């Protein structure tokens, strides 16, 4: 196995660079970074990448992930989320490389929850429609291709702007009240675990659609409540939480309410690798408090 990661300067891609393995190649589009090769999918071809002849798998991580931007500019964002990844998938086929597409929980409409890989996707967001279109192109083009559907992916580093760290930053501003949706549910994926998971999936010769994440159905409100309780126990002043609906927020498109996903396929290969979320929250609070 030799892996090429396209989009290594993103939230997930940076973890591959941090946990780099011999024989892997990492590319960035807009600027160079340590250990990465400059590669612009809109202008460059895969065959121009040094060492491409030894690559067996290519992971496509680059995307426009902000749903509001996708609905505001469906043509422009489609070029990033559909046209360019489909172009690279086709180039992978030409070079005999197995493409791996990073997709999203948002290919589902959120009406059921704990979706399986066999569940019928019905995206209600433009972003989800774009992701699904690229999924379908890969699966219809490449026999052994991989689609990895990511749930809500979080980190524990200050300033990474993921779920828990963003909440802590807000809490430290000392607001009196935090509004939080009590009708939104999702699964979780710790970003640091992604490189190991992807490499294991490849080594296990899995193909088709694989759901990442912990396979659990988490409530946004309950997670924030746990975080606040843990911070309060450590002596941090926390705001009052007010339950609202996800539909109360001023969003360009209504959000799906339950996009939690079963990880049964992944569990058969790896078993449980995610620690209980309560332990994760305790670690994060200790990290922020410096204890």
Q: Can you describe this structure in just a few lines?
A:
With 291 residues, this protein is α/β, with parallel strands linked by helices. It is built from nine helices and 13 strands. A seven-stranded parallel sheet has the order 3-2-1-4-5-6-11.
Give a verbal description of the structure:
Strand 1, helix 1 (13-18) and strand 2 (25-28) form a beta-alpha-beta unit. The mean pLDDT is 95. Helix 3 (74-95) runs parallel beside helix 4. The protein contains nine helices and 13 strands. It has helices at 13-18, 67-72, 74-95, 126-141, 163-171, 194-203, 220-233, 264-270, 277-289; strands at residues 3-6, 25-28, 37-38, 57-60, 98-104, 146-150, 152-154, 177-181, 185-186, 188-190, 208-211, 218-219, 240-244. The strands form four sheets. A seven-stranded parallel beta sheet has the order 3-2-1-4-5-6-11. A two-stranded parallel ribbon has the order 7-10. The chain has a two-stranded parallel sheet with strand order 8-13. It has two domains: 3-151 and 191-211, Rossmann fold; 154-185 and 217-289, Alpha-Beta Complex (UDP-galactose 4-epimerase, domain 1), CATH 3.90.25.10. The protein has 291 residues and is an alpha/beta fold.
Features:
291 residues, two-stranded parallel ribbon, globular, alpha/beta, 17% strand, 9 helices, UDP-galactose 4-epimerase, domain 1, Rossmann fold, 2 domains
């Amino acid at each position: 196995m030799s892996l090429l990661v396209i989009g290594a300067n993103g939230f997930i891609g940076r973890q591959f660079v941090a946990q780099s393995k011999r024989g892997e190649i990492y590319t960035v589009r807009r600027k160079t970074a340590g250990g990465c090769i400059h590669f612009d999918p809109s202008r460059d071809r895969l065959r121009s990448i040094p060492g491409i002849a030894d690559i067996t798998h290519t992971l496509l991580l680059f995307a426009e992930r902000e749903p509001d931007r996708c609905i505001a500019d469906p043509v422009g964002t489609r070029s990033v989320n559909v046209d360019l990844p489909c172009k690279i998938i086709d180039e992978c086929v030409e070079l005999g490389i197995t493409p791996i597409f990073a997709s999203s929980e948002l290919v589902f409409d959120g009406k059921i929850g704990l979706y399986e890989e066999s569940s019928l996707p019905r995206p209600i967001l433009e972003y989800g429609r774009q992701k699904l279109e690229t999924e379908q192109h890969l699966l219809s083009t490449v026999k052994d291709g991989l689609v990895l559907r990511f749930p809500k992916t979080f980190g524990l580093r200050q300033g990474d702007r993921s779920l828990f760290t963003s909440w802590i930053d807000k809490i430290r501003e000392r607001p009196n009240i935090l509004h939080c949706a009590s009708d939104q549910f999702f699964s979780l994926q710790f970003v640091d675990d992604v490189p190991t998971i992807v490499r294991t999936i490849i080594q296990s010769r899995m193909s088709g659609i694989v759901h990442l994440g912990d396979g659990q159905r988490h409530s946004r409100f309950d997670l924030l409540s746990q975080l606040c309780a843990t911070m309060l126990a450590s002596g941090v002043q926390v705001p009052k939480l007010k339950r609202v609906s996800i539909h109360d927020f001023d969003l360009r498109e209504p959000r799906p309410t339950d996009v939690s996903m079963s990880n049964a396929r992944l569990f058969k290969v790896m078993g449980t690798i995610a620690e209980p979320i309560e332990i994760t929250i305790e670690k994060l609070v200790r990290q922020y408090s410096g204890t």
